[in-house]
Automatic annotation (TrEMBL):
UniProt protein name: Solute carrier family 25 member 53
Protein location: Mitochondrion inner membrane
PANTHER family reported for this sequence: SD08549P (PTHR46131), SOLUTE CARRIER FAMILY 25 MEMBER 53 (PTHR46131:SF5)
Native organism: Lynx canadensis
GO CC annotation: mitochondrial inner membrane
TM segment ranges: 12-31, 59-78, 206-224, 244-266
Similarity section: Belongs to the mitochondrial carrier (TC 2.A.29) family.
Record's bilayer topology term: Multi-pass membrane protein
GO molecular function, one term: NAD transmembrane transporter activity
Family matches, as Gene3D superfamilies: Mitochondrial carrier domain
Source species, domain of life: Eukaryota
Species classification: Eukaryota, Metazoa, Chordata, Craniata, Vertebrata
Amino acid sequence: KCKISCVVSNLFFFPLLPVFFHLHPVVFSMAEQNHSPRKELQHRTRAESPGKKSWHSQAYALGAISNFMSTFLTFPIYKVVFRQQIHAMVVSEAVRQLWHEGPQYFYRGIYPPLLSKTLQGTLLFGTYDSLLCSLSPIGPHSLGHRWTAGLMSGVVEAVALSPFERVQNVLQDGRKQARFPSTFSILKEFNSYGLWGRLSLGYYRGFWPVLLRNSLGSALYFSFKDPIQDGLAEQGLPHWVPALVSGSVNGTITCLVLYPLIVLVANMQSHIGWQRMPSLWASAQDVWDTRGRKVFLIYRGGSLVILRSSVTWGLTTAIHDFLQRRYHSRKELKD
């Protein structure tokens, strides 16, 4: 097991080492200094109007728009990835399965993730900005401030959005199409349970791994997004390149670290009904057994997940940064 784990780690992380070592001195010097033009602009805005609520409302809006656009563009990749996680199949098999089902089912299940990801961006960026302002109203923001604000925003996101992910995962499981052809049929099933059953077996099935995945993922993303982006900005690159690269690198590394939790959540939330509803430990054991007790097979489909995460977070960060710059430019013109 140890040898396989080492092989997997080397396989995924080795290509990223040149990027990391190139960014290493820049990233950590920026984490300490925080003197980039973008940071100075943010600090100045907060210093001029620390009590205004418009900044926070703008952060919620920017998060919603950026996540909506990136989710719509990357949904086809997600659909293939989900089939790999559920059925432990290769990419070509997953694509053939979707093709065999027909084009009318290819975008089946897009509405829950589109809504949930839009809400995710709203909560993630908005809550993070609000918490960060509470911890450090003017700045500069330390690594501890960013980590704490990111962790708590991930907790809020998990509590609010876990039901959407649950419905989405049932919809995208091809084995459930006949029994649950629509979102309404799934909601009807969940609402037929008792109060506790609606939460534990219905809407919040698999909540604990979701909570761990979201809180850690958010903390990692926000802790290192700004230092990487500010470090690249000092190299004289076009303003959209640092945001794109920062989001892509963050999304890739975070996905690699948390991928086993992603697989566990997908498998737990695809179960539905009162009978044969395994516990968290039993679900983890089942995933381990069905993957042949091999770490490499746990990471089957990881290449597409890494691609999706890299593209999604790269686009999200770049769009968010672009909209944020537009907002600051308009505000400066008005002032």
